[in-house]
Design brief:
Largest interface: A-B, 52 and 48 residues
Strand content of chain B: under 5%
Helix content of chain B: over 70%
Oligomer: heterodimer
Strand order of the largest sheet of chain B: 1-4
Order of helices and strands of chain A: HHHHEEHHHHHHHH
Radius of gyration of chain B: 21 Å
Largest sheet of chain B: 2 strands, antiparallel
Largest sheet of chain A: 2 strands, antiparallel
Number of strands of chain A: 2
Structural class of chain B: mainly alpha
CATH class of chain A: Mainly Alpha
Order of helices and strands of chain B: HHHHHHEEEHHHHEHHHH
CATH class of chain B: Mainly Alpha
Strand order of the largest sheet of chain A: 1-2
Chain lengths: 299, 354
């Protein structure tokens, strides 16, 4: 039997986890503030660039702390300078504003930290690994780095889940996500919540930036990973954390399988749009994504 | 004082329904049109025509197309550059296979192909709404990016992937000179603006706006959503397709798929949002803003005598551009057209505001 399929599938699933990591940041912000944050990819790039350059002068742990602090500062700045003046505006205006933030962050990151390709090495091993050698003849070849990345992503999701379900702030966040006005009327300060949520999204962006940065090298293309995360979001539903994970897995696996088995007939390179078409097909059946809140429309 | 409508009585239906019912507006628009058609082609320098005015005119056409879809029908599209590409490549393929065809017809066919593509990618809009639809339209962007890079038939098997437009001859007249290019685009823009303005004032526009404001309510009062949404997608994509053909044939001359990347889509959306959603005038203002600001930003450091590397200049340009966009959204979320309308109201009362 041919285990090549399994190998491709596992490779795809592991990549999918990484997409999910970027998608997670989108979901967090969308849930809490209803803003579709297009800048998530640029935040990953910005965080990764900051970390890499800080690591040149500081020890790793300190650099990590500083990068995290920068992302939190960024969240404060965005809330104060962009979100607060735009409160109560139409969704498309906020969306366009986040595209403006994207431009700004891309420019700022690259002018502050330089636009060369940096290598980021946090000591995650990158050797190819052969699994299940006893079970399957020849075993299954996976990249050890991808496995570690998946583990980190899994841990992050677990931490976020606990944070959302078990802490006071998490409960406030969920309340805001449910209904802004109701949350405000029971005394939850919306502004603080937004800062917190953007900070958390910034930290998620940092983790995603670290992982993608060590995989691809820290360079502009990290910002483009966000475009890969969008179909993940649609598939899973904009408001669902588990949806982001499942969507990531489906997109990752679908993308790799299609590239290997469909690609040769279509001329290759279909990775770029296949995920979108896949997501589109899912949406035709479920317009709110797999785990999104059911859309109820009234006149 | 100078802008008063007192004493201007509309005594016929035609006068009442004119696009510019106020005399001063009519005079102003005619003056601008006259200036643009007669004075500018002779007075403007070649650089101004080629690098600023022609792109501005073409992007204004595209912005009008996109505004019909986003501003009037309420369907957010992030794939407009893809429809520009469809228009450009379809026109190119027509000129390759039927080189004797009139160039205006070629642009028309390009637009029709884009309209067909628009309808296909507009179909999900019947089921998917809001952000989900916005992301779904990205599917068009990436699909067509891929199509024109990977399928060599569309580029007539050009080895480098870059294709060149044939000489611009229409009815035996050459439009190769900068002034000729400018006039060609200006003529088409004027036509598009008139058609669009009348479309949105008529039955079609009412249908779109009702769908935009609440599609379920619109459906209940008897507007077919299929009809409304797909017609918006088709007409908007047609106009965007024609502008794409112009962008390729008139502005670029020779181009590759990268000319119609996702950045172009965002730029178009910015024009529409900054200019003003649901306003034809806004398309002009937005296109002017988005075309001129980057050129301006590019020149500032050199003009101030600050020595900066090209990479640094482009980063700073990005930053300033992003800041300006956020700034404008905060100052006037309804766009430049709204600022214009406020100014006009003020002018009506000036100098005795009470």
């Amino acid at each position: 039997m041919d285990f090549f399929v399994v190998e491709v599938l596992i490779g795809g699933l592991l990549t999918g986890v990484l997409y999910a990591l970027v998608a997670l940041g989108f979901v967090l912000i969308f849930k809490a503030s209803g803003v579709f944050n297009f800048a998530q990819g640029s935040m990953c790039l910005f965080a990764a660039l900051a970390l890499v350059r800080l690591m040149e002068v500081l020890p790793v742990a300190l650099a990590l702390l500083c990068a995290a602090a920068i992302m939190i500062g960024l969240a404060f700045a965005i809330e104060r300078l962009v979100l607060r003046p735009l409160v109560n505006q139409a969704a498309i205006i906020l969306f366009m504003a986040t595209i403006g933030i994207t431009f700004f962050l891309d420019g700022l990151g690259q002018s502050l930290f330089g636009s060369e390709v940096y290598t980021l090495d946090l000591g995650i091993p990158k050797n190819p690994l052969i699994l299940f050698e006893g079970v399957i003849p020849g075993g299954i070849l996976v990249n050890e780095f991808d496995l570690w990345a998946a583990v980190i992503a899994g841990l992050l999701v677990a931490v976020l889940a606990v944070f959302f379900q078990r802490t006071r702030i998490g409960r406030a966040l969920r309340a805001v996500a449910d209904d802004h006005q109701a949350a405000q009327s029971v005394g939850i300060p919306l502004r603080h919540i937004w800062v917190i949520v953007w900070s958390v999204a910034g930290l998620v962006a940092l983790v995603a930036g670290i992982i993608w940065g060590s995989k691809l090298g820290v360079q502009f293309s990290i910002a483009l990973v966000a475009l890969k995360a969008l179909p993940v979001l649609m598939l899973g539903g904009l408001t669902s954390v588990p949806g982001a994970i499942v969507g990531g897995l489906i997109v990752g696996a679908g993308e790799k399988l299609s590239e290997v088995f469909l690609g040769p007939f279509l001329g290759g390179g279909i990775e770029n749009w296949f995920a979108y078409v896949l997501a589109l097909l899912f949406l035709l059946v479920r317009p709110q994504g797999l785990f999104g809140e059911r859309i109820i429309e009234r006149v | 004082m100078i802008y008063r409508e007192a004493g201007q009585f509309r005594t016929s239906y035609a006068a009442d329904q004119a696009v510019f019912p106020v005399l001063q507006d009519r005079v102003f628009v005619w003056a601008i049109a006259l200036f643009a058609f007669v004075v500018v082609p002779f007075a403007a320098s070649e650089y101004l025509l080629r690098a600023i005015l022609v792109p501005f005119l073409i992007l204004a056409i595209a912005a009008i197309g996109l505004n019909l879809l986003v501003g009037y029908c309420g369907q957010i599209s992030l794939g407009s550059a893809a429809f520009m590409a469809v228009g450009a490549y379809a026109s190119y393929d027509v000129t390759v296979h039927l080189p004797w065809l009139n160039l205006l017809l070629v642009f028309l066919i390009g637009g029709l192909c884009a309209a067909a593509a628009g309808v296909v990618f507009g179909l999900p809009s019947l089921r998917i709404k809001g952000y989900y639809l916005a992301v779904a339209t990205l599917a068009a962007q990436f699909f067509f990016d891929w199509l024109f890079i990977r399928i060599p038939w569309f580029t007539d098997y050009a080895s480098s992937g870059s294709v060149s437009a044939p000489p611009l001859r229409i009815f035996g007249l050459s439009f190769e000179s900068p002034a000729g290019r400018y006039l060609l685009c200006l003529g088409l823009l004027t036509m598009t603006a008139l058609v669009a303005k009348n479309l949105v004032r008529g039955r079609m526009g009412r249908m779109w706006m009702a769908t935009r404001d609440m599609d379920i309510a619109a459906e209940i009062i008897g507007i077919r959503p299929l009809h409304a949404k797909l017609s918006a997608f088709a007409i908007s994509s047609f106009i965007i397709g024609v502008s794409g053909a112009l962008w390729a044939f008139v502005h670029l001359g020779s181009w590759e798929p990268l000319a119609f990347s996702i950045d172009r889509s965002f730029a178009l959306l910015f024009m529409v949002v900054i200019g003003g959603l649901g306003s034809i005038l806004g398309c002009f203002l937005g296109a002017a803003f988005i075309t001129i600001v980057p050129i301006f930003l590019n020149q500032v450091p050199a003009a101030l005598g600050i020595p900066l590397s090209t990479a640094m200049v482009s980063h700073l340009e990005f930053m300033t551009f992003g800041t300006l966009i956020v700034f404008f959204l905060i100052v006037e979320p309804n766009g430049l057209a709204r600022l214009w309308a406020i100014g006009r109201e003020k002018l009506r009362l000036w100098p005795f505001p009470h």
